[in-house]
TrEMBL record:
<dbReference type="Pfam" id="PF00364">
    <property type="entry name" value="Biotin_lipoyl"/>
</dbReference>
<comment type="similarity">
    <text>Belongs to the 2-oxoacid dehydrogenase family.</text>
</comment>
<dbReference type="GO" id="GO:0004149">
    <property type="term" value="F:dihydrolipoyllysine-residue succinyltransferase activity"/>
</dbReference>
<dbReference type="InterPro" id="IPR006255">
    <property type="entry name" value="SucB"/>
</dbReference>
<feature type="compositionally biased region" description="Basic and acidic residues">
    <location>
        <begin position="243"/>
        <end position="253"/>
    </location>
</feature>
<protein>
    <recommendedName>
        <fullName>Dihydrolipoyllysine-residue succinyltransferase component of 2-oxoglutarate dehydrogenase complex</fullName>
        <ecNumber>2.3.1.61</ecNumber>
    </recommendedName>
</protein>
<dbReference type="GO" id="GO:0006099">
    <property type="term" value="P:tricarboxylic acid cycle"/>
</dbReference>
<dbReference type="InterPro" id="IPR036625">
    <property type="entry name" value="E3-bd_dom_sf"/>
</dbReference>
<feature type="compositionally biased region" description="Low complexity">
    <location>
        <begin position="87"/>
        <end position="96"/>
    </location>
</feature>
<dbReference type="Pfam" id="PF02817">
    <property type="entry name" value="E3_binding"/>
</dbReference>
<dbReference type="InterPro" id="IPR000089">
    <property type="entry name" value="Biotin_lipoyl"/>
</dbReference>
<feature type="domain" description="Peripheral subunit-binding (PSBD)">
    <location>
        <begin position="219"/>
        <end position="256"/>
    </location>
</feature>
<dbReference type="GO" id="GO:0033512">
    <property type="term" value="P:L-lysine catabolic process to acetyl-CoA via saccharopine"/>
</dbReference>
<feature type="domain" description="Lipoyl-binding">
    <location>
        <begin position="2"/>
        <end position="77"/>
    </location>
</feature>
<comment type="pathway">
    <text>Amino-acid degradation; L-lysine degradation via saccharopine pathway; glutaryl-CoA from L-lysine: step 6/6.</text>
</comment>
<keyword id="KW-0450">Lipoyl</keyword>
<dbReference type="InterPro" id="IPR004167">
    <property type="entry name" value="PSBD"/>
</dbReference>
Length: 507
């Protein structure tokens, strides 16, 4: 089946465009929404994505041609297989691989693609390859591990055969639809690294330390040239991500993006000789993303925190009275988290703006509660989500929190299990925190901080008594939540915890 690629909508006042650059050539494999070419009009530059996956069978309009609206640009054969040319080394330190003559490579070639990363994740970093080119692999055997800003993703082999070629080396950043490697089905053998051609060796030998890549004469995207001129960025300051090192528009934006001061240069040791006693470890992708998102939350939201305290006698008494019967019937222990989740769901009904989020100039109110529960793991903080927590029983909440917490500690949480939260609870009390100001989990507008339960003297009915007390902290986005709403929310949580019967009576 053949699919036509036509000129997209150019605007009512635009009657023609010029083919500026083709990023693919006939015979290349293309994926859905992968950029095929770039058009230039008298007003804007227009990118043309692929409408389907398949093989670029024919280019109808070559570079430099002028075309009108809806003109035919190319033909794509759906479901075809491209003839893969011999791999060229992308960098001197990461050569391509080829198999020795004794390897049988007559089977079908199977692409190893980036697996599903989740709807909000657009890229990943190749963390570790467990196989090398030429190794024999079995179906479903783990080939490599990717790191995203939320979880680590294992990539299994889609077929049995030989890992013929690795396309994305360790440390490379790949998008959600990228090819990672090629497997030749049914092949047998070992691999030897391919040597660069004589011409490539000459270029690499003469290159400076900052230019250890094969040089080719490529034309950068017109939109990239324009962006470089506008931003005052020179060509050698930009790392091209397009075919053959072609600079794309987004590469210019990355090159021009401001960097945090801490990343500008390594910190000098505080005193002579201290460097030998220091250990420098590169931040994981997860930790980098945690740092960026937390700082973004501070920079974006008008974040404010209000405090209160709750007498936990009521919850502790109810829990002690029913914990054995609860565990016997539901096969799960009755903890404190289910009380807090139910108390927050109850309060969110009265103060719905705490359960809302800002989208541009709109406030989106959620008529459901997807409760995020922050979990500390060896690799960093993750926030799995208990969906429709307002519709679940105490037992259902306890079971789900227990299962999600175990997955989080084992690094087995899926992307779907960490997306879509509308409100978050963070329990710093398990680490001994007496009081803190939790940071919002964007785009949410509220997060409740739990803390350590500590016996303190309080006045009850004119008498000083000892009670188990907990400080509560609500951080909220003042752009959508007023002070009155925030205080009211926290008071309702306090009341529900101090008298859990209010939850049953919906008071």
């Amino acid at each position: 089946m053949t699919t036509e690629v036509r000129v997209p909508a150019l605007g009512e006042s635009v009657t023609e465009a010029t083919i500026a650059t083709w990023f693919k050539k006939p015979g290349d494999r293309v994926e859905v929404d992968e950029m095929l070419c770039e058009l230039e009009t008298d007003k804007v530059t227009v990118e043309v994505p692929s409408p389907t996956a398949g093989i670029l069978a024919e280019i109808v309009a070559a570079e430099g041609e002028t075309v009108g609206p809806d003109a035919l640009l190319a033909q794509i054969s759906e479901g075809g297989e491209a003839e893969k040319p011999a791999a060229k080394p992308a960098k001197a330190e990461a050569p391509a691989y080829k198999t020795e003559d004794k390897t049988t490579m007559s089977g079908n070639s199977v692409d190893v693609m980036v697996p599903s990363l989740g709807e909000s994740v657009t890229e990943a970093t190749v963390a570790t390859w467990f196989k090398k080119a030429g190794d024999r692999v079995e179906a479903d055997e783990m080939l490599c591990e990717l790191e995203t800003d939320k979880v680590s993703v294992e990539v299994p082999s889609p077929a049995a055969g030989v890992l013929a070629e690795i396309l994305a080396e360790e440390g490379a950043t790949v998008d959600a639809k990228a090819r990672l490697a090629v497997i030749t089905e049914g092949a047998e053998g070992t691999a030897a690294p391919a040597k660069p051609s004589d011409a490539q060796e000459t270029v690499l030998e003469n290159a400076g330390p900052e230019e250890m890549t094969p040089r080719t004469d490529v034309e950068d995207a017109p939109s990239a040239k324009k962006a470089m001129a506008e931003k005052g960025v020179s060509r050698d300051q930009v790392q091209g991500s397009g075919r053959d090192g072609r600079v794309m528009k987004e590469d210019v934006a990355k090159a021009n993006a401001p960097k945090p001061p801490a990343a500008a240069a390594p910190r000098a040791p505080s005193a002579a000789g201290d460097a030998d006693r220091e250990e420098r470890v590169k931040m994981t992708r997860l930790r980098q993303t945690i740092a960026r998102r937390l700082k973004d939350a501070q920079n974006t939201a008008a974040m404010l925190t209000t405090y209160n305290e709750a007498d936990m006698s009521g919850v502790m008494g109810l829990r002690n009275e029913y914990k054995d019967a609860f565990e016997k019937k539901h096969k799960v222990k009755l903890g404190f988290m289910s009380f807090f989740v139910k108390a927050c769901c109850h309060a969110l009904k009265e103060v719905p703006e705490v359960n809302a989020e800002i989208d541009g100039t709109d406030v989106v109110y959620k008529n459901f509660v997807h409760m995020g529960v922050a979990v500390g793991t060896p690799s960093g903080l993750v926030v799995p989500v208990v969906r429709d927590a307002d519709q679940k029983s105490f037992a259902e909440i306890e079971k789900e929190i227990g299962a999600l917490g175990l997955k989080g500690r084992d690094g087995k949480l899926s992307m779907a299990e960490m997306q879509g939260g509308t409100f978050t609870i963070s329990n710093g009390g398990v680490y001994g925190s007496l009081m803190s100001s939790p940071i919002l989990n964007p785009p949410q507008s509220g997060i409740l901080g739990m803390h350590k339960i500590q016996e303190r003297p309080v006045v009850v009915g004119g008498q000083i008594v000892i009670r188990p007390m907990m400080y509560l902290a609500l951080s909220y986005d003042h752009r959508v939540v007023d002070g009155k709403g925030a205080v009211t929310f926290l008071v309702r949580v306090k009341e529900a915890l101090e008298d859990p019967r209010r939850l049953l009576m919906d008071l």
